[in-house]
Design brief:
CATH superfamily: Golgi alpha-mannosidase II
Number of helices: 0
Radius of gyration: 13 Å
Shape: globular
CATH architecture: Sandwich
Protein name: Glycosyl hydrolases family 38 C-terminal domain-containing protein
Distance between the termini: 20 Å
Strand content: over 45%
Number of domains: 1
Largest sheet: 5 strands, antiparallel
Length: about 100
Amino acid sequence: MPTEAGFLRVQGGVVLTSLRQTDAGLEVRLFNPETRVERATLCFTGLPAGSEKTLHAQRVDFDHRPLGDELKIEEGQLSISIKPKEIVTLALAGI
């Protein structure tokens, strides 16, 4: 998939493998093909004014169950570390 769409840009040495709509919002799946930890930054652009305040993200497993605490989105960006060869799924709500 491309690293940029109308409202989302992915930076870092990771691959955006899936972006899909769910009942709760969106689900983003990223893969780190490298042999080292990669820092991925998701930049949310073109969202309606103020919507970044209602945007929430959380890691989930393949069955959409939450893994850990909610992730912090600051100034329209979310940065996470992804281990080598790891697949990460993020649930996004408030978009």
